[in-house]
Amino acid sequence: MKSKVWLGLLSLALIIALPFGTDLILGRSWVRLLDFALLYAMLALGLNIVVGYAGLLDLGYVAFYAVGAYLYAMLASPHLGMHWPLWALLPMGALVAASFGALLGAPTLGLRGDYLAIVTMGFGEIIRIFLRNLNVTNGPAGIDLIDPIQIGGFSFGANHSLLGWDLPGIYSYYFLFIILTALIILISHRLSDSRIGRAWSAIREDEIAAKSSGLNTRHLKLMAFAMGAAFGGVSGVLFAGFQGFISPESFTMGESIMILCMVVLGGMGHISGVIMGAILLAILPEAFRPLSQFQQATFGHVWLDPANLRMLMFAIALIVVMIIRPEGLWPSPVHRRELHANDSEAGSSQKAAL
Hints:
- This protein has helices at 2-25, 28-53, 62-75, 86-105, 113-133, 169-192, 195-205, 207-212, 217-243, 253-266, 271-287, 289-299, 306-324, 333-353; strands at 76-77, 82-83, 150-151, 154-155, 160-162, 165-167.
- The protein is mainly alpha-helical.
- The protein has a domain at 11-252.
- The strands form three sheets. A two-stranded antiparallel sheet has the order 1-2.
- The longest helix is centred in the middle third of the chain and has 27 residues, at 217-243.
């Protein structure tokens, strides 16, 4: 017990010291990258409810992110002349995004696998195209001059001073995102251990058997879509306040696929693994940036566009990891046992056939 307390205190100290150490060693831009990593962690935890817990493949998850972001942008900027506070917009973003999640889930309850993925992908693109063409969202120009997040009289976008240390807004956002990420982790953990979480697991493993056992799979799947979408809406609200500018190009299908990769790479259904996957995939593209600079310095001419070279190395790293660890980098013990049990059964069947 005492060792767990000390481990918790050490983890807390590392979390608090992380942005300061990152700033000193790598530079302030990496602190901003940490902020985005935490936003992606919240998004991945939301998608994990849909994909990891309930087993519903969703390729349009970024739509809920966009709904939350545009809600904050329109109600907390000069765009409509409104400046609503965070305490009102954060629950509103979760509620509106959850409503869109239920709206998406209702017509797709009879679909599975690839068909569900195609429909959700279409939903994400429809939302993006609507945002691009509606006058109220300012079309492709997006919305700028968005109010920074404020709680009371404290503005997270302003510089602050602590014990003589000048703290820019990215530090304040880091600690706010840490608190909200911890809250989402707590909710996800409670859901996974609840009756609803076990019902979602039953649907993921065998929907027909779950329905035969008396579970209302329709309501449970709608609840999974709505709960996951709510987390996406919260993340969108925070993104708009943090970024100060949004446009439809921030919510492409590529973002949905990236969030799905975070869940799959880390370990579907495992909270710690999903967070690891989100942090790794947020940081890896930036970590490969020196390769592009080396290419330009060595060869003098660009034989491959620097951005494409970074993403090529990023993709190769993903493929290698998924070949070596198909269950994810940090899978749940149950998922690991199930996967290797299936491999053992397949191997036994092949030997018997020979």
